[in-house]
Amino acid sequence: LLGLTYFDKKITFAIVGASNIAEAHIINVQKCLSAQIKYIFSEDIARAKRCSSRYYIKPTSNYNEILDDNDVDAVVITTEPQRHASLAIKAIQSGKHVLIEKPLDSDISMAKKVLEEANKSSLVTSVVSQNRFDPKILEMKKQMKINLIGEPFLCEVRMFWSRSLDYYSSGNGWRGKIGNVLINQGIHLIDIVIWFFGYPKRIESSIYKVKDNIECYDNAILTLQFEHNIWANMVFSTACSDSEPYGFRIYGTKGTLVYDADNIYSRKNQGIQFKNKLRQLFGNRFRLKVEKSLLQLQIENFIDSIINKTTPAVSLKEAYDTLSVIKKCEKDSCYSFSDYS
Fold it and tell me: Cβ distance 9 to 20 under 8 Å?
């Protein structure tokens, strides 16, 4: 017997945090054949134990126990955003690969420290942005690359959701204090727009609050200008009475790309609709190819990056750039290219 090679061994994870999103990570990591979970961490050991009993994972309230364990290859950080950076930095310094639930942190200066620390090592560090693995969004990016809609000039984004006061007060209440509509929900679509068009040259924002019993803002209207005279108009709200499917459109000189919850299509100016290319190619088999959740696809990409020593699909720099746009928007101001450091 030759035994296990590095490429055959399972990547051993520790989950840091015991919230609902932590359970989503546990479920999706356990679905990966090349991964296993050893620990679930929470400062509240009773909470860690409740979670561990459901998934047969060792509970701990001692973060150093994880960091000192040479069997642990990677940690997934799912705590409140204001703790992401400090936990990530300690993990990197202890030789662990790190996957961080969005955002990178709630403090841009702390986020920068994670970026600096990660740049010193060869470890894989990434931030969750699972929408990048959506086949519909990947198809849109492909269609833009082959110039199907001509030169893009406008992107229109809408997200109208409902979030109750119970949502904001749940857990230790951090959502009602720092969990604003951009850093907690809109961040996914902002990341996609930056991924498509690059970092904006100009940022204009208006942010405001509708619900009285929260400290954070729950509405935001953004206007971003990119290279090549491309503009994005983005509207986000979590103050609506009912949630609607989010979506966005990219308008080009020869047609339009539309993303919504159920459909993606391209339309020429003459009004001829193209059928979904993925369905043309795969028919009913297309559903089999997307049985995995988007989060599982990102976790698999993260594991593959560790094994093959490659850059993950969502780089730490990209996550930092997305957060920096949000932080500029929070100042409720207008920024030109010369303002950027």
Answer: no
Q: Report whether 230 contacts 152 (CB < 8 A).
A: yes
**At residue 324, what are phi and psi to the nearest 5 degrees?**
-65, -35
Helix, strand, coil distribution of the chain in percent, nearest 5: 40, 25, 35
Contacts of 282 (CB under 8 A, 6+ apart): 289
Read off the pLDDT of each residue in 252-262 and give the average, rounded to a whole number: 87
Q: Report pLDDT digits (tens) over 76-122.
A: 999 999 999 999 999 999 999 999 999 999 999 999 999 999 999 99
Handedness of CA 324, 326, 330, 331 (dihedral sign): positive
Average pLDDT for 259-278 = 47
What six digits make up the tokens of 289?
């190819």
| pTM of the predicted structure, to 2 decimals | 0.87
CA 297, 79, 306, 140 dihedral sign is: positive
Q: Return contacts of 316-319, CB within 8 angstroms, 24+ apart.
A: 316/104, 316/114, 316/115, 316/118, 316/125, 316/126, 316/127, 317/115, 318/129, 318/191, 318/194, 318/195, 319/100, 319/102, 319/103, 319/104, 319/111, 319/126, 319/127, 319/129, 319/191
Q: Which of 319, 294, 302 is CA-nearest to residue 133?
A: 294
Tokens 């893009």 sit on residue: 152
- The pLDDT of 327-340, averaged and rounded, is 63
Amino acid at 181: V
Q: Classify each residue of 134-171 as buried b or exposed e, where b means 16 or more C-beta atoms within 10 Å of its C-beta.
A: bbbbebbeebbeeebbeebeebbbbbbbebeeeebeee
